[in-house]
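Researcher: We're teaching a course module on how sequence relates to structure. For the next exercise, students receive a sequence and then see the predicted structure as tokens, so they can try to spot secondary structure elements on their own. Here is the exercise chain.
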Amino acid sequence: MADRDGRAADKTISSRPSRYRVEEPRAYPKCSPAAGQAPATPPACTAVLVVHGMGQQIEFETLDALENGLRSVDPALSREAGPPAEKVRFVQLESTPLRRVEMNLTGAGAKRAGHEVHLYEAYWAPLTEGRVTLRDVIRFLCEATSNAFSQRKKPFGRWMFDQEIQFRPDRGSAWILALLTTAILFFVWMNTAAAVAVGWALWEGPQTDFQLFWDLTWVIQWPVASALLFGLALWLASVLRERNAPDRRLYVWNFVVYGALAVALLAVAAAAVLTTVAFLRHRVTGERIFPRVAYARLPFPLPFLGVVLSWGAFVYGVIEIREILVEYVGDVAAYISPSVLDRFADLRKRIKETVVTIARAIYESAAANGRGWQYDRVILVGHSLGSLIGYDALNQLINEDALEGDRQRVVSRTSLLLTLGSPLDKTAFLFARQGKKTSEAREALAGSVQPMIQSYARRPRRWVNFYSPHDPVSGALDYYDDEKEASARRKWIENRKDSEATVPLLSHIQYWRHPDVLGLLHASLTQEERV
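Model: And here is the predicted structure for the students to work with:
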């Protein structure tokens, strides 16, 4: 049946009102005040630029998590059920096209006036797609582990605030790197041994080497079972956290998770060794060395199904783990690798330029009428590897602004630098260790592009770092302050443990959902910064 325009009948099933309204596109010119002269007083509007972390990031995924988190802690938006509260808009800040979410946040107590906030995302994930291999990841980890672990007992110097400051080495990072590298090497060994053994068995033919196939099946079922056990324990720990279980129960279950992880790593190491032993034993004597798997004695087709499930789960797990290593650790390797991996130099430059271009456009954006800045305050939020990229980008903007006589007031307008799950301390330690023949000149040159460690006057008003003991990537940032300069205490980094980030490993990706983080950010946006 067709309507009066000859089109097919309406296929719409249902519709519902949306919280979001798409506004008309808008262009903003560049604000170019004279050096040393502030432009007209900008409106009370704050921009938030979020830089996502490593891994398979979807565009606007981090921005969506940030917007939902702010809405959940806002006293008005969290209970609003009326008309759309958030607006989305395509904008062009001078020549930079961007998309943003526009919110109107409400403070608590006496300061309940609305605060206009614009959320932006610096999306760089596609730049690393397909650029890093597992070989690059292994090489990076081996070199980093060798440098950090071999010198873990020696203090290292860092050029900061016109002096060389000696710091204690980050021994914890050295041990974490050593454990991770060892586990990955056993993982590669296991895969290689299994592939060689299976390939040889297929080449020889099942009629002559079926025993080897059963031996291999007996071996690989243990890492598969231990991985499933670890996944189940991790999922249950996450569920308990979501349901606000008592701390005692969370502590006990986290112990179970770490135990399951240890069992899984030991199973992988054992599988690597046993697969090699089984293959060599069959090659030399042709004898079976392991008991026949239990389901091999069952009537057909149960043994066939058992073999398919065991090997299917094994192959699937291998592919997934390899993808995780390349996508997550690979991003870190590409961005912070030493100069040995020169083919990543251009990639690092493109990632940094992408974020700098967006941040520069935000800082330089003028109001719609061209008079004064569009934003009186800018907040930069970096998660995981995004905290490194955001730190580098902000340093570059501060240096550029200094060359122009502080024309854009980048330092004074940056009200907050918020880092979540940041490995900045770990990379500072690793960079110091990557150059075994490092010198004071080298450290000073590295510091020349980091004005935030040259002078506290070149640092934003506030820098808050959230970390979790259960997040191996993160940590307190201790290598960026001079503790002897007590007069600058108010600009020292505020290291805060996230009380909600208690799930092992998963805590690294859960900062956006925790009230500690969201509450501080919301208070900063509504000009009610809590200490």
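Model: If you want an answer key for the exercise: The longest strand covers residues 96-106. The first helix runs from residue 61 to 73.
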